[in-house]
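Lecture 7 notes: from sequence to structure.

We start with a single chain of 461 residues. Read the sequence below before looking at the structure.
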Amino acid sequence: MPKLYIDEDGRTSVYEILEDEVTIGRGAANAVQLRDPRAGKHHALIRHEQGRLKLIDLETLNGTRVNGRYRNEAWLAQGDTVTIGASVLRLDLEGVVVEPPPATAAPAAPAAFAPAAKPAPPVARSAPPRPAAPARPAAPQRASAPAPARARAAPRRGREQGDAYYEDSEEDGRPVRKKKGLDSSVIVLVCGLGAVLLVVVMFLAMRTGLTLNKEVFLKADKMAGPPDNDYAAAIRYAEKHGDPGGENWQRLHEHIVKWKGFIVLEQARQLDHEASEYLKNEITRKTRTRGFRPMNALPNEEIAVLLKGFLERYGDSTDAGRILGGAVGEPFETFQNILRTYASADTDINGLLSRAKTKADALVVEKRYGAAIQVYENLEATQKVLLQEDLHGTLVQTTTDRKKRLDLAAREDFSLDMAAARAMARRGEKRRARARFQVMADTYGIPDLVTQAQDELIKLR
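Now the structure, written as tokens:
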């Protein structure tokens, strides 16, 4: 029975060739499984053909050597060695009758070209045969050496988890070392987390304009709603976190303006309440009205001084408007008569103008030119009742000159801001340009300038 002695990694194992075809390679499906990384997954096979053993290389990249020479196919004989990488396979055919390969007969020549038959030569008479020599005794046949003890090595074991193992490339059969890496489930988990992270990043990148301003509006509206009604905090939050370039900024800006209006109305209500209480407690009770004189009544000169202080302090209140507007009924008619008679005598026009200028300059710093001009217009309207005609004319002349200067300064600043905002739009910075035009429309307060800023905003949408 033919045997293969397999020398690999310093160990020897024996494989008895019982099948008609024996496969050799690294794959677990092979009859002879090798550990050598240079062996292919299906490297070679040994096949019984015509009573002999034939080695066939399965077109591997590293090849197969028979007795030291690379061969694709080779007939194997006793003691031949087959080398695959560093593994050596030695064939033992002791006790096996090997049939010689059948000789191939030479093809017969065609009859048309057969040479003419020569006549047989005459048979020579042979001498009588000599007597046969006595047969020599046969030499004793030498017994073959027994197989080494290592031939009975333990059967080859399969590959275990700790072994360094390899896989072949399915295309060209090259041995490729299998890298030890993460488990497939871990890789799937990491890929899933990466996809989720990518979606989150894209969502955050898109949270501008409509979405951002909507969230800011919801939080600010909650601050402005009951029970707190903190309009000032809502305005501060919206202006700080809002996006002027976003699609929903216009709606947020409208609510900011509305909340500012609520603040003004609340201040006006508070001012009217304080003015009404002051007028009732400090002035009305001390005047001579309805034909009787209260015990604590004051002369009209002192009443005029109180009324003047009242108008300077609560000039924007409803009661002050009634006095200055000539409202009918008591005590307003009495107050109007007292003011016409006594109030203009000791009026300090320079003091009025100085206080108005201080207030207007503070507004100019914020580029609120319209509000600054309104300060002088309010001063003119308030003092029209308090001052005599000549004094009021002098006041109006001074305030008119100051209003003209403010108007010229406003137009110069507006032209500079307009040029800067248009330059932003030409550079493609439309978001910043819209924000600049919106600020201009909200602050300058002069009708024709506000219209220009709003027209530029419409062009950028």
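The mean pLDDT is 75. Keep this in mind for problem set 3.
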